[in-house]
Amino acid sequence: MIELFVRAARLHRSRYILTFLAIVLSTAFTVVSLELGRYGRDAATASSGSGYGQATAVVTPKAPSANRNLAAEVARVPTVGEAYGQSSHEARIRYEAKAVDFRAFNVPDPAFGFYKLLDGRMPLQTNEIAVTQALASSLGLKIGDTVTVGIKYRSKDQPEEQSFSAPPMVVSGIYESSGSTLATGTSLTGYVADATSRQWLVREGKNPNEAVDKVYVTAAAGASDAQMLSEVSRLPGVVVQSRSSMAQDRAKRLLDSASIMETTTLALGLFAVALTCVVIWNTFQVLALTRRRSLATLRCLGASVRQIWAMVLGEALLLGTVSATLGLGIGMALAEFIPKVVRGPEEAWEIPSSITLHPPFALLALATGVLITLGCAIWPGYRATHTAPLAALDEGEPAGDPRAPGLRRRLLPGAVVMGLGVCVVVLGQSVSALRLGTEPGIWGIGVGGTLLIASSVLLSPFLSGATAAPVARAVRALAPQDRRVDAEFAAENIKRSPRRSGAAISALFITTWLLTGAAAGASSARETLLANLDAGHSHDINVYQAFDSEGLGMGISPEQQASVAAARGVSGVLPIYETKVKTSVAGYESTTVEAFDPSVARTVVSARSGPAKLREGRLLLPENGGRTVGSASAVGNNGRSIRLEVRYGKVAKPTMALADLKRISSTGPPTTLWASVADSAGSSTQIATGVATGVNAVSGAHPPVVTSWMLRQHRAYRTAVARVTGVFSAHLVVATLIAAAGVTSPIALALVERRRETAVLRSLGQTRHSLRNALTIEQAALGSVGMALGLVFGVVGSVLTTRALFSGVDTGIFISVPWLSISIVIGLEFLVTVGLTAVPAKSWMERRSTSFRDGNFLRL
User: Fold this and answer.
1) For residues 814 and 796, what is the distance between their CA atoms, to the nearest angstrom?
2) Half-sphere exposure of 570 (CA within 13 A, CB side)
3) Which residue of 74, 187, 260, 474 sits 20 to 30 Å from the alpha carbon of 96, by its own alpha carbon?
4) Could you list the mean pLDDT of each consecutive 10-residue stretch along the chain, which spans 860 residues?
């Protein structure tokens, strides 16, 4: 069998090479698509979405208190699931001749995810320490280095600073901190084991159970965040800062974005498989017909039907196994580079720097490559087993009569299948539009699309005569005088050979449908993904002062605001004001309200975020609570009252328009600044550091806190989306070239079937040049019809599929049809298809030129 396969591969090497490349590309792209989708989900799951890690809120004591175990007290609240108490130490770390001040913390519970480990591991022993990448860079530290740590503290009896030295410590890990705080332009911190932190607290004269700076909490299973926050807030002497519905919404947006990315990559993987099926099917169809005489000869020599069947399927199995295995190896190698391609130049801890490959994905891609090759060879193999022995004396196959009963019998089933496909697609789209479920809508559109493709195969012979022949005659009217005969001959040839013409139209229609649908679907998925990310990141940088005893932010000075506005890369600044008000809304009787000018917000916050929906006369409440929409009264510190419409939205605190707040309260200076950054402003780390440096220069002894994790996260994910889109665009170009070259298989099939009629025409005096012109015009007419229909079905199908796939995304579905990209794909496909038409025609005619003379067309 292998010898026959090698001999067949030599005779039809161009077809085998094309099929081999298609299977390799499909398998490799399938592996990369599956791994890329899982990588995106892992990245979103690992991302905290806020400076609190995975915590819902942080509890801070208003003042140090003896005999109070705050962490245990918070953990006893029934609605609290996990509570992690964090203690800090002011210290100085020394390595060789260098020494810097830093802040040390006890290692957090991994569930809270305050760090991204870059190398090594977190401390387990009392003599181990993990440091930030910034601290390691400043001292030149690496894993295994030994450092000296001195702890600085003040006791109640002696207010002056004291210190003691800890035993030598070994660097066990290097990490990058989430929720990067750039108050000093850098982040020099470290983690020590919990036992080490407790020992240090005892040396400082503190009770380890009471010396807690912050307690991070999450809600218990079955308890809502609103219930947990309400109960924790009742604890005396604490300030509770919620992770807020905005931060929770941001985390949800990231997971939704990961789901969109995973679904899109899976769909693109299926696109590659479907496109490869078209190439393989066309190739085996041609091989089965061109080897018709050799297979009949084998039958004459005694080969059984089972042997012929085993030979054809064996060749397909061998081809599929070899090419799919090579594609699997290439795909696994390329998957290793996914983090380097996706992460880009942005310094973003949110996107993992490594990838874990999944063996089931590799096995699935390998099995898919082998099975589609076998599946596409079954029908040609079946036809090969039914080759009559007398076919060994025949060189060709009649093209068929357009009025033959076999063709007429295909009309009614084709129309029925098309009608059924349209109905199933409409039903699937209706299910998606009504949000009755994503999976039924996807299945409906997928099954309906398959039925429409099947109907195109059944109806293509009738389409060729009704559409392609008039196109060829239109070419005749526009062609020069010496080409008009060739155009008329092409039109007649289309009508005379409906099966042959229909096969070409079907191949071009399906290929164009897949290419166009993939381009439009990927573009719509990209826009929906970016809109989902934008909605979860209302702004880029926060600048805020410390909080007073009532939990209100201290004021931002005009100089600080001007410094932030003048910083490089900052495109807009929104001042946020805070005050205490009383409302008639249950649960918000006395609450802190944020306020800003909505007209200014439109230039700063994302147009799809919750704050962008603020209006005057409206009170926005966090979505932690109920959903009742109504009105409520609000009373400020000047005793005045106003009536406001109550809505719920993605906001951190109760929010109203600044004009409404000024009617009932004296506002004072802003307490927080929200800053937005231009997309092309450069590195997010440099921008945030520049903002912090500028603010510090005009702040004196009490600089505000500058947080930029939102900027880093947002830009990192947008960069990742852009890079993934670029990778797919490159694949689409390669797939277009291979698919267009694969469509030439029906052209080769046409040449095989026209062997005798071509000989007759050449004997009657028609030149090879004239025959090539007629064939080129014929294929151009067929191609224009097939591609036009494929373009329409591809665009419409991509819109319907996108709506079904992303019907659960609450930011809305954004349809984007990239006409320029589609034009390039269609133009490239048309040029390659028509251009390659002349190559097999010319080479076949030159190779068979001796058969066209002296009446050799009469030879059996």
Assistant:
1) 14
2) 25
3) 187
4) 59 73 86 84 59 65 74 86 85 90 83 72 91 85 93 77 90 72 53 91 82 81 70 83 61 70 78 80 74 71 75 82 91 86 62 77 88 83 67 49 50 76 75 61 70 71 65 64 68 70 75 83 82 76 64 73 89 88 83 88 79 85 63 84 84 85 85 83 74 83 70 76 81 76 66 67 72 75 80 82 71 80 84 67 51 45
Distance between CA 85 and CA 216 in Å, rounded? 7
Spatial contact of 155 and 205, defined as CB atoms under 8 Å apart:
yes
Residue 228, classed as helix, strand or coil, is helix
Alpha-carbon dihedral sign for residues 646, 647, 652, 656: negative
Separation between Cα atoms, residue 114 and residue 612, nearest integer Å:
29
Dihedral sign for Cα 204, 214, 549, 670, please.
Answer: positive
Which residues, including other chains, have CB under 8 Å from residue 434's CB and lie 6 or more apart? Answer: none
* Alpha carbon separation from 631 to 430, 628, 644, 730 (Å, rounded): 36, 10, 5, 54
Question: DSSP string of 304-322?
Answer: -HHHHHHHHHHHHHHHHHH
Q: Coil, strand or helix: which one is 575?
A: strand
Most distant CA pair in the chain, distance: 121
Task: Name the residue with tokens 């161009």.
Answer: 14
**pTM of the shown model:** 0.64
Which residues does 461 contact at the CB level (< 8 Å), separation at least 6? Answer: 402, 407, 410, 498, 499, 501, 502
> Please, are residues 492 and 451 in contact by the beta-carbon 8 Å criterion?
no
Q: What is the spatial distance between Cα 757 and Cα 777, in angstroms, rounded to a whole number?
A: 18
**What distance lies between CA 730 and its chain's CA centroid?**
16
